[in-house]
Amino acid sequence: MQKTKRRKTNLILNTLIVIVIVLICIVAYSIFFAGGNHADKDTSSHKHATKTAAAITDKKDSSKAKSSEKKDTDKKKKKEDSKQSTVKTTNPNEPNVKEQIVDSSWKPVGTQQTNGHVYSTDSSSLDWQEKLKALSYATGIDVNNMTVWFLEKGETTDQAIGTVSEKGQDQTYRVYLTWVDGKGWKPTKIYKLIQNDKK
Question: Partners of 90 in the beta sheet?
Answer without folding.
Answer: 99
